[in-house]
Amino acid sequence: MKQDKKEEEATPQIIQVEETTSTNSLLRELMAREHLAEESVVVADYQSAGRGQIGNKWESERGRNLTFSLVIYPTHVPANRQFLISQIAALSVKETLESYTDELTVKWPNDVYWRDKKICGMLIENDLSGNQLFSSIIGIGINLNQLIFISDAPNPVSIFQITEEKVDREEVLNLFLTIFHEYYTYLKMGDIERIRTNYWYALYRREGFYPYVDKGGMFEAEIEAVELTGHLRLRTRTGESRRYAFKEVACVLPQGNL
C-alpha cells in the first residue's frame, strides 16, 4: 500500500495531551480514525500505562520527562530491514541529548545510555504490507527532569541528575524531530551505510570484552557486528561467534544488574 502524493506532503501534526494510557496506543487510535501525515507526533505529560519492550513498564513522573510517539510510513523498507527504523530512532535521541551532556551511547538494540545508566527507552511497532513495511509507530520515553526513580528498574538516569539543570521538553522534542527528519531522509534516499556506520560507532561497549548472559549462563565477549536484520554477533574470548536476536542475550551491568 502506498500513500498518494497529497498525503505524503501533508503537514505533520503535534498532538499534545495531559494524560493517556500509552502514546503508542493513542496514536494508533487516531490513525484508525483519519490519516495522519508522516512524522506526526502524540506527546503526553503523563502515561498511566507506558509500555516498554516485551511488556516492561516505563516509569515517568508526570510533567517531568518527554514521552511521545511518532508515526512514519516507510513503505520503501523491506520487512527484513525494519531494524533500520530502530537505528535511526536511537541515533536521533542520542544526538539530540548530546546538546545537553556527553558520554551517550546506544545499547543494542535501541536504548540510549549515559555511561552505564539508561536515559531513554523505546517501543517500536511496525505494521507490514506484504514484504514491505507499511507504518511504524515509534514510542519514546526520555528521562529529562525527574529527580528520583522509585520503580525497580535497575539503572535509570535523567538529564537533570547528570547536569543539575532542568531542560525544556518542547525544545528537546523539536530538536529530536529535526534530527529524526534528517535520518529518515537518509533512509528514504537509500543511504543505509551512513546509518549503519553511525550506529556502529554509537554502540555501548563497542570495544572490549564484557560480561553477557544468555540461556546457557554468563560469558565474556566482544561485539563482532550488528547485522542488517538487527541480530547481534558476539565473539567470545575463545573466538567463538554467537548470533542473537533481541532478548536472547543481555549485557551484565555493574553490580550484576541486567
Catalogue the unreliable spans. 1-8, 52-56
Q: Which percent bin holds the helix content?
A: 25-40%
Q: Kindly report how far apart the N and C termini lie.
A: 40 Å
The whole-number mean of residue pLDDT values reads 91
Report the biggest beta sheet as strand number plus sense, adding barrel if it closes: 7 strands, mixed
Count of alpha and pi helical runs: 6
Content of β-strand = 25-35%
Query: What structural category arises from helix and sheet content?
Result: alpha+beta
- The number of E-state strands comes to 12
Radius of gyration: 18 Å
Shape: globular
* H and E string: HEHEEHEEEEHHHEEEEE
Order of strands across the widest beta sheet?
1-2-3-7-6-5-4
Write up what this structure looks like:
The chain is α+β, with helices and mostly antiparallel strands and 258 residues long. The protein has six helices and twelve strands. It has helices spanning 5-8, 23-33, 83-97, 159-163, 169-189, 192-202, and strands at residues 14-20, 40-47, 66-72, 104-107, 111-114, 117-129, 132-142, 210-214, 217-226, 232-236, 241-244, 250-251. The strands form two sheets. The protein has a seven-stranded mixed β-sheet, sandwiched between helices. A five-stranded antiparallel β-sheet has the order 11-10-9-8-12, with no helix packed on it. The longest helix is centred in the last third of the chain and has 21 residues, at 169-189. It is globular and about 55 Å long. 33% of the residues are buried.
